[in-house]
Amino acid sequence: MVIDLNKCIGCHACTVVCKHENMVPRGVHRSWVTEYEAGKYPNVRSLKLPRLCNHCEEAPCLKVCPTGATYRTIDGTVQIDAGKCVGCRYCLAACPYDARFIDPVQKVAAKCTFCYHRVEAGIMPACVSTCVGQARYFGDINDPNSDVSRMLKSRSHQTLKAELGTKPCVYYHGLDGIQLDPAKLRIAKGGR
């Protein structure tokens, strides 16, 4: 997934449609948008920063799951088998992006799935198809003709917390030269 921060207007349509599409209970979110102040005075910029599971190539959550509930699909996404999850919270502690939570109803770990059920049916994730600003792009990075592949080749991009070596698969356009304070990323989430 590529998210163009220059197009995100912070409307939260992605958050709302995700909750509806995936029947996410009250008080938790699989996708959310934070407002983040970046830069130093007098060059401060306010940006809307959509957040979700990064489906990392080197996913720490995958490595710590004691039951195999967290797994990688053939196409590379990181998913959770709710039937195998015991709610131990190891994956929550391991995720440096705060993208996981315990579902308050099912009492198991949950997170963004890139709407795997839709993608398998040939439909874009709900957040992508609903994005009012057309800021989200989704596709096969290995396909040179896909939107995401072309964007990553033609535009500058960054990932969150790249220094951790998790190799996130959510890329942001519009973060050029902005150093995001990891502590503020955690705080900015607030009551998601």
Automatic annotation (TrEMBL):
The keyword Cell inner membrane does not apply. Keywords: 4Fe-4S, Iron, Iron-sulfur, Metal-binding. SUPFAM superfamilies: 4Fe-4S ferredoxins. Residues 1-28, 76-105 form the 4Fe-4S ferredoxin-type domain. The keyword RNA-binding does not apply. It comes from the Bacteria. PANTHER family: PROTEIN NRFC (PTHR43177), PROTEIN NRFC HOMOLOG (PTHR43177:SF3). This is Tetrathionate reductase subunit B. It comes from Sporolituus thermophilus DSM 23256.
